Amino acid sequence: MFSEIIIDLSWLFTIVFFLYMISIIIFIIMENRDAQSTFSWILIFILLPLFGLLIYIFFGRNWRIHSHKKKAFKEDLYDELKNTLMPIHNKETAIIAQLKEGGMSNHKKLIDTLHSFEEASFTQHNKVKILQNGSKKFAALEEDLKKATKYIHMEYFIWRDDVLTNRIKEILVDRVNNGVKVRILFDPAGSSLMLIKGRSYLKELRAAGIEILPFFNSMARSKFTALNNINHHKIVVIDGQVAYTGGMNMGQEYIDGKPMYKSWRDTHIRIEGEAVHSLQALFVYSWKAITGESLFDKQYFTTQENITNDLPMQILASGPDSSQSTIRQLFFSMIMTAQKKVYIQSPYFVPDTTIFEALKLSALSGVDTRVMVTGVPDKKVAYWAAYSFFEELLQAGVKIYHYNAGFIHSKTISVDETFCTIGTTNLDLRSFTTSHEVNAVIFDVETTKELEQDFINDLNQCTELTLDEYNNIKPVVKFRNSLCRLLAPLL
């Protein structure tokens, strides 16, 4: 009798599990992900039935805007944005014509592709300064913050409670006491330590009159699922005159690397000019999505008459609520349009199929294609997964370097000493699909040459991975790396 009950339960369990798997597979397929991501998720559900479901709920839901209410909200935001930035939009045609006829004449398809991104405007009159380490970035930032007279807008993935941020706090409190309005957004996942251990720090900021809020995107179905769709932005806008973006978050380790690393190598930019308005628009968009307060007002988008430099730029943003993967398309187009050389820096390397194939085709066509990743990993699984891509790249002629002096966190691409991009986007699936990212595209020979020279200088701190060295890796290690690659959608 007892054995019959066991047999009946086993059959019931088998049927339930079978129905569960069929339902899951149909659901994943209906999300229309790329094949790599689809099969990875199906495998996770098969190997880890219950735990895999929890992982998916937290990390995997590819939410988009579904309800009419959410669509209307997003459309209203873009209408406000377009009206505010109409003077910049009206200049685009002339800027694009100038690019096509000038230094970008060999890259017309790229320009047309970028122009098709309606939410990102080309700007012309800008000044850009590359900041290649935390000491330079934060020294410049602190000086600019001290000069603020109207407002300071800041948006960061990670905000610590440490020596650096306490120094920043003192500056911000002083500015508030002098009538400056300070608004800050931080990502609750990236800044979890501050939320847990830094409550007194937050209270001090708020008690001083600083508005500092966690970023929970209103487009997400819930705050719980929104935690997966991290706000990876690093944006500062001061009085509409100066802006910053790039790889560095708000924490002391971005200056000295401690306590985990000997040093920290990163890339940020300081911007003056019309492109400041584009970064301001991103912050204002996020602020209204979180608070409902609209800052689409001329007082936050003041004209800068003193910037006459001819330095074309475009600020691109992408995220789970974007209509298309603009930054992934940017990366793909940059790699494919390169005629002489393309240099890439990214701490993590877990590309999707399109970027992976683009890199191979670039090298096979004779373009000097180089990729620099960290040799001192902070995430071992991502580091191991990267190795599973290296064999085919090396066979195609891509040169791969590991930076070993400390942790490298730069996210840059430079092409043909002609144009480049600096921003927050890692070369991995999460940055392309589930995170809110921002990148500056700079169409300037001098700036691009500087960035390429910095890449060459970094090679002194690197070891090159050769095909012979890769072939000497033990089979069990290669198998481990391939297993980690199956987790690509989570990395």
CATH superfamily of the largest domain: Endonuclease Chain A
Strand order of the largest sheet: 4-3-2-5-6-8-1-9-18-16-15-10-12-13-19
CATH domain class name of the largest domain: Alpha Beta
Structural class, by secondary structure, is: alpha/beta
Number of strands: 19
Task: Outline the low-pLDDT stretches.
Answer: none
Q: What is the CA-CA span between the terminal residues? A: 49 Å
Instruction: State the shape.
Output: globular
- The CATH architecture of the largest domain comes to 2-Layer Sandwich
What tags apply to this protein structure?
about 500 residues; alpha/beta; two-stranded parallel ribbon; 21 helices; Endonuclease, Chain A
Compact overview of the structure:
With 491 residues, this protein is an alpha/beta fold. It has helices at 2-30, 35-47, 49-60, 68-84, 86-89, 92-101, 108-115, 134-146, 163-177, 192-197, 199-207, 223-226, 253-256, 275-291, 326-337, 353-364, 380-396, 429-433, 445-458, 467-471, 475-485; strands spanning 122-131, 151-156, 181-186, 211-214, 234-238, 242-246, 264-265, 268-273, 310-318, 341-345, 349-350, 368-374, 399-403, 407-408, 412-415, 419-423, 427-428, 437-442, 462-465. The chain starts with a helix and ends in a 6-residue tail after the last helix.
